[in-house]
Amino acid sequence: MKRYLGAVLPALLSVILFGVTVFGFLLPEVESQIIAKKREMIRELTNTVWNILATYDAQVRGGLLDKDEAQRRALGRIRALRYGPEGKDYFWVNGLNEVMIMHPYRMDLEGQRLPQFKDIKGKDLLHAFVDVARQHGEGFVSYYWQWKDEPGQLKEKTSYIKLFQPWGWVVGTGLYKDDVEAEMRAMNRDMSLVGAAVLLLVTLLSGYLTYREMRAEGERAAAQEVLRQTLDKYRAVLEASPDPVIVYNYVGLVDYVNPAFSRVFGWRADEVLGGKIDFVPDDEKEATLAAINAVYDHPDGLLSFESRRLTRDGRARNVMVSLAVYRGDGGAPLGMVVNLTDITSMKRSAEALRESEEKFRSISANALDGVVMIDPQGRITFWNQAATAIFGYAADETLGRELHPLLAPPRYHADYVKAFAEFGDSGTGKAVGRMLELVARRKNGQEFPAELSVSSLQLHGQWYAVGIVRDITERKQAEEALRQSESRYRTILETVPYSIAISDLRSGANLEINDGFCLLSGHSRQDALGKTALDLGLYNRPEDHLTLRDQLERDGEINGQPVTYRAKDGRLLECLVSVRRFVYAGRPCLLSVAQDVSALRQAEREQARLQAQLQRAQRMEAIGTLAGGVAHDFNNILQAISGYTQLIGGHPGLDQKVRRYAEDIDLAARRATDLVKRLLTFSRKVEPALQKVDLNRQIDHAVAMLERTIPKMVRITTRLDPDLKAVKADPGQMEQVLMNLGTNARDAMPEGGELMIETQNVRAEDLSPGAACQLTADEYVMLRVSDSGMGMDAETQKKIFDPFFTTKGVGQGTGLGLSIVYGIIEGHGGRISCYSQPGQGTVFEICLPVADDSLTEREAPEVVTVRQAQSNGETILVVDDEAAILDVSTELLQGAGYKVITARCGEDALEIYRTRGQAISLVIMDLGMPGMGGQRALQELKRLDPEVKVLISSGYSGDGPVKDSLAAGALGFIMKPYRLGDLLEKAHLAIQG
């Protein structure tokens, strides 16, 4: 019995010691390690997602993506991430404003602000997450939440959250207490099985020892050694947890796998025990076999290497493989323990870091903004090419130098030193995480405005600062220009009404509208709410609704789409419509903004009209200049023709038939003279004789003449304002305007109709923007001439004032009538407009400025009877470059008893006057001559003889150079072509003084 107890007691003590060790110490320690490992796992997973956000934020700051697109892509990647044994564990994203941004299983909460979202224990979840994020930036939070994708089950959960400061997002993931407890129970069950196996083994050994009655000491030692090896083997298994652990025997068969192996790789223990695990990728098998052979040959029996292993579903995991050989008596290897540490997340993080570094280098090298890094001593450690372009320093001129003496104006050095001292202690400061505007200094000493963004970076326990610098000189200049522009137009812009409506995405019914909608549409809030735009008849063309809907489905949004709305009162409004989708009151809605641009479109059309008017005026100016020159030259020709015919007609004893021919030629010359006067009027070479004119009286005279020339089937009606104010005008030119417009109206009504002439007093502010444009006076008289004729299309209206444009047949019009009218009205400081449609008649509206008190109404000139001039044989010097005019003038004057000397230019006239000036009683001189010209010749004559008498002639009217000549001392002016009797009369009067 004693020997039995001596054999059994050690075995029992071993069992007790094993139980106490395993269940009293090892299992609690392993459980603590598993929990710590789990917490570390979710912390690393959260950091991985945080790095994803940082990667996209770097792309935003590098200008590769805009912020909205980067956030959309980041959420898409995070939403798709899953892990865990069932692939159901997930990540979520909240905002610091307690808005649920993304949750893969609670999409119904996305976009909502949940300030009081409580779990079953009454804990404010989002508030708790935000508190941890604001106070610590990251940390663990415990609460109750739905079991993965099963909303009906609520389980206790611990999550690790981390704040992503650039976007104000809180990201996190968590583990359920039930998962951890299930893993613990599985481990306890396995350990219990191991304990039971050990107990059974001990019992068998005890029975065997009892049956053998304490066999020899050597056999007992062998049994104890077997027990020791067993305990060592399973102790190694336990110590390797929670990493996957596999125990192989010497021939490579699996003796044991721990629960972590099943959790990570997917095989249950009963599927692999006693066999081999085929989970080494083909490209890793050779290296793995070499490592196994090496560890068996190695004296220590230990070896670690990095490799990959496949899970049951074929996914590759990066692992750190640790091999440990266990040996028997004499050091013979019995097998090995393999510990597999999953480093997949670490590899991904390292790869993400590498990619991030590469992107940073690429972005900084190609960035338009300067990127500068300084160390804890304030010395520059990084300087990109853009910084060189901004500051003028090459990288080798800056690296290792202190930043602030180099780049900051001296007046800011003290503030910089103080701020940098605060930064060096904590990595924080007023400039960190903010966008600042400051003044920087270039290499040449020039100061410029800059924009600076500073972030902190901790390396080796010390704080580094990274700054992104942008030269905002051009932006500041643009902002100043914009500020000045906004100052000019702020009042106008603040009064522009914008219509805003929120409508249900599916039904289109209005859920909310603003006052601008009511102002624009004319519908009250009560009328519009609950109804669609189609119900309200808002679209002038209902098909526009379908066009907008198709564009929204295709592009996802609408920006500034032109649409014509119809207000409640029937007004048509040209609007620019923008539409966005968003969630309102928990349901998908549309936000529609409409800007009434009717006035803008009208202004654009008016601008086009004014541009066309300007081009027309420029064309008329060019053609007028040409017409004036032609008229001047033509007058010289007419002067010769008229002069010769008058000489022929005045010859005594002339055959009557020849006399009649001469009279006919003279009559034709007079008609040609009238045409030339019209050309001069068109070219504005005839200055209007402005005076007070009663326009109603002018109309009465014109109507009397029109009634004698217009067919009876055209009825003339007048509607004249009895209190009409006098206008500042030339009566003759006004009569010409009325006759031309009346004749045009007659031609537009070949079958008869009505010609209406109206007058009224108007003020500039009462006129339409088009009519009032460029008018300078305050008061005007409007003359309106309308007919009921065939009208014109828009294309014809653009050309009606163009010179020589006519719709009449060949030989039926010159195309100068309306051009002359246009020139006369412009010359009077007025404006003329035309309104017409085919088949609807035509209206001409003319605005003429009201006469001021300084003008008087002139009396009709007194008729002077021309008497035969009496000559006393005086000498007259005739100066003209046209030989025919010299010939006619000489013949006429000599016939009247004068002595005549001729000259072809001003230079010859001066030479003649120098030698014979005392005998010359009068100089008749043309103004438009080659060489020095008539006006210069007049000045030189006056310089030779201040008492010289000069009579000037010209093919132009009495303005411009003629006025200058009269002012310079000429006694009179006679316009070509003149009647010979008029020339004799003016010559006689000039000689008589």
From TrEMBL:
<feature type="domain" description="PAC">
    <location>
        <begin position="303"/>
        <end position="355"/>
    </location>
</feature>
<dbReference type="GO" id="GO:0000155">
    <property type="term" value="F:phosphorelay sensor kinase activity"/>
</dbReference>
<feature type="domain" description="PAS">
    <location>
        <begin position="485"/>
        <end position="554"/>
    </location>
</feature>
<dbReference type="InterPro" id="IPR001789">
    <property type="entry name" value="Sig_transdc_resp-reg_receiver"/>
</dbReference>
<keyword id="KW-0902">Two-component regulatory system</keyword>
<keyword id="KW-0175">Coiled coil</keyword>
<dbReference type="InterPro" id="IPR011006">
    <property type="entry name" value="CheY-like_superfamily"/>
</dbReference>
<dbReference type="Pfam" id="PF02518">
    <property type="entry name" value="HATPase_c"/>
</dbReference>
<feature type="modified residue" description="4-aspartylphosphate">
    <location>
        <position position="926"/>
    </location>
</feature>
<dbReference type="InterPro" id="IPR035965">
    <property type="entry name" value="PAS-like_dom_sf"/>
</dbReference>
<dbReference type="GO" id="GO:0005886">
    <property type="term" value="C:plasma membrane"/>
</dbReference>
<dbReference type="InterPro" id="IPR033480">
    <property type="entry name" value="sCache_2"/>
</dbReference>
<dbReference type="InterPro" id="IPR003661">
    <property type="entry name" value="HisK_dim/P_dom"/>
</dbReference>
<dbReference type="Pfam" id="PF00072">
    <property type="entry name" value="Response_reg"/>
</dbReference>
<dbReference type="InterPro" id="IPR036097">
    <property type="entry name" value="HisK_dim/P_sf"/>
</dbReference>
<dbReference type="Pfam" id="PF00989">
    <property type="entry name" value="PAS"/>
</dbReference>
<dbReference type="InterPro" id="IPR000014">
    <property type="entry name" value="PAS"/>
</dbReference>
<protein>
    <recommendedName>
        <fullName>histidine kinase</fullName>
        <ecNumber>2.7.13.3</ecNumber>
    </recommendedName>
</protein>
<dbReference type="InterPro" id="IPR000700">
    <property type="entry name" value="PAS-assoc_C"/>
</dbReference>
<dbReference type="Pfam" id="PF00512">
    <property type="entry name" value="HisKA"/>
</dbReference>
<feature type="coiled-coil region">
    <location>
        <begin position="593"/>
        <end position="623"/>
    </location>
</feature>
<keyword id="KW-0597">Phosphoprotein</keyword>
<keyword id="KW-0808">Transferase</keyword>
<keyword id="KW-0067">ATP-binding</keyword>
<dbReference type="InterPro" id="IPR036890">
    <property type="entry name" value="HATPase_C_sf"/>
</dbReference>
<feature type="domain" description="PAS">
    <location>
        <begin position="230"/>
        <end position="299"/>
    </location>
</feature>
<feature type="domain" description="PAC">
    <location>
        <begin position="434"/>
        <end position="484"/>
    </location>
</feature>
<feature type="transmembrane region" description="Helical">
    <location>
        <begin position="6"/>
        <end position="27"/>
    </location>
</feature>
<keyword id="KW-0547">Nucleotide-binding</keyword>
<keyword id="KW-1133">Transmembrane helix</keyword>
<keyword id="KW-1003">Cell membrane</keyword>
<keyword id="KW-0418">Kinase</keyword>
<dbReference type="InterPro" id="IPR013767">
    <property type="entry name" value="PAS_fold"/>
</dbReference>
<feature type="domain" description="Histidine kinase">
    <location>
        <begin position="629"/>
        <end position="852"/>
    </location>
</feature>
<keyword id="KW-0812">Transmembrane</keyword>
<dbReference type="Pfam" id="PF17200">
    <property type="entry name" value="sCache_2"/>
</dbReference>
<feature type="transmembrane region" description="Helical">
    <location>
        <begin position="193"/>
        <end position="211"/>
    </location>
</feature>
<dbReference type="GO" id="GO:0005524">
    <property type="term" value="F:ATP binding"/>
</dbReference>
<keyword id="KW-0472">Membrane</keyword>
<dbReference type="Pfam" id="PF13426">
    <property type="entry name" value="PAS_9"/>
</dbReference>
<dbReference type="InterPro" id="IPR004358">
    <property type="entry name" value="Sig_transdc_His_kin-like_C"/>
</dbReference>
<dbReference type="InterPro" id="IPR005467">
    <property type="entry name" value="His_kinase_dom"/>
</dbReference>
